[in-house]
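Chapter review: from sequence to fold.
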Amino acid sequence: MDITDVRVRRVAKEGKMKAVVSITIDNEFVIHDIKVIEGEKGLFIAMPSRKSSDGEYRDIAHPINSDTRNRIQDLILARYYETEDEEPIV
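The token string follows.
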């Protein structure tokens, strides 16, 4: 699996969410709405999720192992830092 594109849209408003990201896998499959969040230990990603009827949020799409999650997170955060000079979205 190759992540062939990473698109970062920085968020202008104050808060913990810093960006919304889309990734393309193997030039064939896209995952939208991955969030870059500022936590106590630094930035991390949150996969797209939906609120269920019991009020809990559940991931819609997510890696099934930590190595894949780390690889995706490392690529997204590297691209996020490359976009520091770009204008954030409102």
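Two observations follow directly from the output. The radius of gyration is 13 Å. The mean pLDDT is 93.
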